[in-house]
Amino acid sequence: MLKLISFMLLLLTFASAAEDPIARWEKAVGGREKVAAIKAIYREGTIEFAGMQGAIKVWHTSDGRYRKEERVATNWLIESFDGNTGMVQAGPQAPRGMSEEELRQNRSKRFANSNAMFFVFFPERHRGTRTVEDGNTVVFTPDGGIEWRITLDPQTSLPQEMGHREGDKTITARFTSYETVDGVKLEKEIQRSAGDPSRSAVIRFTKTVINPPIDESLFSIAGIMAQ
């Protein structure tokens, strides 16, 4: 009996691996139709970094606009990207345009974490490439951006980790827990590492709003200067 059960589990594992990982991922998060109805996601949470506590707010739109506000101790950072140009303000410094290297990063950061669904599930909406490397690995690169590598959990088919390169470092985000918001599964906790434990960060989301009202100035220089 035990041998039969083991054999059946093995068959199920092979069947799961043989199925398109993107299709498995779509089912796992709640279905392609639910994700297709999302126009924007707003999230806020806590961040722990180098023994310090802080807060984070992020806006992502399905068409690839992005804004992040991050404060840790006395340090704060605002980034905004309107799909073409980006602005950044660090602390009391004046807002400035992003460098070409920063733009390369942000053309991909706008599809970070669960927001990768907007690129991977709907390739007709965005320019770039996506490939299935094996039964649990999806790789995608937005035009003019950097490569992201997503590893799915073989049991849940949800993203287990996501990695990319920044300079000579590999940045890895591990998704250690999930929550369901309006029928869609999103990561609840992220452990972000650059290979140095002293520089690791943990983000825990405490609020999520799907399809919130969006003020277009969020993604502009005017929105940053209004802070």
List the helices and strands and how they pair.
Layout: H1 2-18, H2 21-29, H3 32-36, E1 40-49, E2 52-61, E3 66-72, E4 75-81, E5 86-90, E6 96-97, H4 100-109, H5 116-120, E7 128-134, E8 137-142, E9 148-152, E10 159-166, E11 169-181, E12 184-193, E13 201-210, H6 221-225
Antiparallel strand pairs: 1-2, 1-13, 2-3, 3-4, 4-5, 5-6, 7-8, 8-9, 9-10, 10-11, 11-12, 12-13
Descriptive account of the structure:
The protein is an alpha+beta fold and 227 residues long. It contains six helices and 13 strands. It has helices at residues 2-18, 21-29, 32-36, 100-109, 116-120, 221-225, and strands at residues 40-49, 52-61, 66-72, 75-81, 86-90, 96-97, 128-134, 137-142, 148-152, 159-166, 169-181, 184-193, 201-210. A 13-stranded antiparallel β-sheet has the order 6-5-4-3-2-1-13-12-11-10-9-8-7, covered by helices on one side. Strand 11 (169-181) and strand 12 (184-193) form a beta hairpin. The radius of gyration is 18 Å and the shape is globular. Residues 4-17 have low confidence and may be disordered.
Number of separate structural domains = 1
Question: End-to-end distance, in Å?
Answer: 66 Å
CATH class membership: Mainly Beta
CATH homologous group name: Lipoprotein localisation LolA/LolB/LppX
What's the overall average pLDDT, rounded?
Answer: 89
Major sheet description:
13 strands, antiparallel
How many helix segments? 6
Give the helix level as a range of percent. 10-25%
* Overall SS class: alpha+beta
Rg computed from alpha carbons, rounded to a whole number of angstroms: 18 Å
Report the order of strands and helices. HHHEEEEEEHHEEEEEEEH
